[in-house]
Every structure is written in structure tokens, then in C-alpha cells.
């Protein structure tokens, strides 16, 4: 019997609460969700929206990615709270630093992925997380980047050019009605990354409310193009309904 995949549907995966250790001595709360069996075809390292405005590892696109993608696409999802950020899983040590000391957080996540031999690592940033990706994420381990609603607040032209020079793929997912950067301007600003693919999403706003499926499909198309999309909207195996308590940082 098929079950409709809803916002709180959690599909089977190997899930592990993890702790990331930063070079400046902090412990960060996180979770790794892996396919039930076999090697993942890709790994998402998720960098969440601004914690001072409610962003955290449980921000809805990332929560749904962790709940669905290991089963639907054989993709591993590593999500975590940056310094000072809280979620149901707990609060990471330290305090918010406007994207500066968060460079240690990005490095800790990538170090974890490398140490645990997670394959085909992609950074997936959303809003504030896109600036962390562009400013701090150009690492040899990283295959490419998916940028959801990038405001380009801290990212400079030099950061964009560096990604362009790297040749690594960059996929920018731009809402039609974004609060900060809309498709036409995004195409102009991302022209500094010749290989960047900028995709506009109609009738979509910065927070992607009601549009998570479109975001997940686009992420999978970018990191695992051999997986058929759109992803299934129903599931024929065991599943759980998992209510997540939203915690304010």
C-alpha cells in the first residue's frame, strides 16, 4: 500500500547523531542520515539559514532532505547547527559570529565527511548558508555547490571569481519573489562564475514554503543526475510520522 509522503514523513535510513569538533575548540550538534544499505551516491553537507532569524539544521528543506533523500535517491545528508545555534537535537557551543568564525564550522563538517569517507561531497547552502558556502566552502573535497535563495550578503566578487576559477559546478536556485535576489539580477551577478547554472522558480519566496519538493528535486538533479526526478511523492515501504519541535536560537 502506497503512503503519501507528507511534511513529517520519515523514510527508512541509518541515522546517527554526530558531534563536529571545530579547530577553535567548539562542539557542534549534527546528524548524518545514510541510505539503509550500500554506499551513498552523493553526500550533502547542509549549511542552514541565518540562526538569528530562525535558521537551524531542522529548517524545513533540510529536515525533509534528511527524511527522504537517503531512501528516495541513495543520498547521504549531513546537517548540523552552526555555532550558537539550537534545534530539537540541542545547541551547538559558541555564539553566532556573522559568518566569520563559522568558517571553522564549515571546515569541521567537511573534515567529518572526509574522515568518514563520505563520497561525492556537495555543499548545499540556504540563504546565510549560501554565503558560508561561497566564502568558506571552496575546499578540495567539495565537488560543487547548490545555493538556495542566495542573498550574496557577505560574498564578494572575489569569492565568486574564485569559484569560477575552480571550475566546480555551482547551481543557484532563485525564487521569483525572493526578498534579496531575484532571477534577473542573480544571472547578472553570477556571471562571474561562468559555469554557474541559475534557475528561477516561479511563484516561490525566500523561505520556499510549500515548495520543498521543487527544491529537493533540483538538488538531486544537481548532485545525482542519474536519479529520476521528480522524486516519488508516495512510498511503498515502512515509514514513520516524525513531529519535530521547532526551537528558536
TrEMBL record:
Tell me where the signal peptide lies: none
| Keywords linked to the UniProt accession | Hydrolase
* Entry superkingdom: Bacteria
Which InterPro entries does the entry link to?
AB_hydrolase_fold
Gene3D superfamilies according to UniProt: alpha/beta hydrolase
Which GO molecular-function terms appear in the entry? hydrolase activity
Protein's UniProt name: Alpha/beta hydrolase
Amino acid at each position: 500500500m502506497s503512503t503519501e509522503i507528507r511534511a513529517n514523513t520519515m523514510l527508512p535510513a541509518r541515522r546517527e547523531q554526530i558531534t563536529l569538533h571545530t579547530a577553535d575548540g567548539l562542539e557542534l550538534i549534527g546528524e548524518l542520515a545514510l541510505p539503509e544499505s550500500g554506499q551513498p551516491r552523493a553526500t550533502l553537507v547542509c549549511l542552514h539559514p541565518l540562526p538569528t532569524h530562525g535558521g537551524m539544521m531542522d529548517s524545513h528543506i533540510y529536515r525533509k532532505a534528511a527524511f527522504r533523500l537517503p531512501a528516495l535517491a541513495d543520498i547521504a545528508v549531513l546537517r548540523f547547527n552552526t555555532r550558537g545555534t539550537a534545534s530539537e537535537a540541542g545547541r551547538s557551543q559558541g555564539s553566532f559570529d556573522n559568518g566569520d568564525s563559522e568558517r571553522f564550522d564549515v571546515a569541521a563538517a567537511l573534515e567529518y565527511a572526509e574522515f568518514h569517507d563520505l563520497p561525492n561531497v556537495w555543499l548545499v547552502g540556504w540563504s546565510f548558508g549560501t554565503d558560508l558556502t561561497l566564502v568558506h566552502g571552496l575546499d578540495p573535497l567539495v565537488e560543487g555547490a547548490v545555493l538556495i535563495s542566495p542573498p550574496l550578503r557577505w560574498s564578494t566578487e572575489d569569492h565568486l571569481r574564485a569559484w569560477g576559477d575552480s571550475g566546480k559546478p555551482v547551481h543557484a536556485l532563485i525564487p521569483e519573489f525572493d526578498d534579496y535576489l531575484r532571477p534577473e539580477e542573480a544571472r547578472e551577478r553570477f556571471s562571474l562564475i561562468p559555469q554557474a547554472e541559475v534557475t528561477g522558480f516561479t511563484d516561490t519566496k525566500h523561505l520556499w514554503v510549500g515548495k520543498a519538493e521543487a527544491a529537493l528535486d533540483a538538488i538531486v538533479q544537481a548532485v545525482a543526475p542519474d536519479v529520476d526526478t521528480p522524486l516519488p511523492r508516495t512510498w511503498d515501504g515502512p515509514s514513520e510520522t516524525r513531529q519535530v519541535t521547532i526551537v528558536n536560537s
